[in-house]
Specification:
The structure is a single chain. The chain is an alpha+beta fold. Helices cover 21% and strands 46% of the residues. The chain has 2 helices and 10 strands, in the order H-E-E-E-E-E-E-E-E-E-E-H. It has helices at residues 2-39, 202-207, and strands at residues 55-64, 74-86, 91-100, 104-115, 120-127, 137-142, 145-154, 157-166, 174-180, 188-197. The chain has a 10-stranded antiparallel β-barrel with strand order 1-2-3-4-5-6-7-8-9-10. A hairpin with a 7-residue loop joins strand 9 and strand 10 (188-197). 12% of the residues are buried.
């Protein structure tokens, strides 16, 4: 009986020695997870990311003729736009217009809507020729650069479309549209705009 008790005692002692480091390791991991949770930064609220677009603008445009055909022919022309707040700034409506001998007459609008749950913007474009909203470009701003993506059909082929906004804190915001026919491995820029705010409109723009 004594030998049996001694053997049981030794087994219990061995288990305690083995389990003690695991307990310490688990406690350390728990404390590390707690620290990481405390130091994790909240997701950035991006509902004012497009505030730079509010107002009236003159726009210089560059358009690549026949995208994704190997074309290197660009045309340049000018247009104008007006962007207003909707839903107390949680959305925007931009009206765009250009009339040139090169591109013809174009009237379009962009509806920008912010989703506070996903922290993403959806950008819907439509023009007066067909009155149809294109599939939304979806994305967000990071470090002052906005990237937005969608899938569409061009000449019977499925393509990806990318919008990129940059220089948003400058007086001349810059925009580029690109197409990809290889799933985003390569991109071809086909539409470029540089904007200049119309003078004398700053105060009225702020009041909108």
């Amino acid at each position: 009986m004594k030998i049996k008790h001694i053997r049981t005692y030794l087994i219990v002692c061995s288990l305690l020695v083995f389990l003690q480091p695991l307990r310490g390791f688990a406690q350390q991991n728990s404390e590390t997870a707690k620290t990481e949770a405390q130091t994790a930064l909240p997701e950035r609220d991006g509902q004012h990311d497009f505030d730079f677009e509010l107002g009236t603008w003159n726009i210089h445009l560059k358009k690549l003729m026949r995208p994704l055909t190997g074309s290197t022919t660009w045309v340049e022309f000018d247009g104008s736009s007006v962007t207003r707040k909707v839903w107390d700034g949680r959305a925007q409506l931009e009206q765009f217009e250009t009339d040139s001998s090169i591109a013809g007459h174009i009237e379009g609008l962009t509806l920008r809507m912010y989703n506070p749950q996903s922290h993403e913007w959806r950008l819907y474009w439509a023009n007066n020729k067909n009155g149809i909203m294109d599939p939304p470009q979806i994305g967000e701003f990071k470090n002052g650069r906005g990237e937005f993506y969608a899938q569409d059909i061009l000449n019977g082929k499925s393509i990806l479309i990318r919008f990129v906004w940059s220089n948003t804190t400058a007086i001349t915001p810059h925009f580029e549209q690109s197409f990809s026919e290889d799933g985003g491995k390569t991109w071809e820029v086909n539409w470029i705009t540089d904007q200049t705010r119309v003078r004398g409109k700053e105060e009225s723009d702020k009041a909108q």
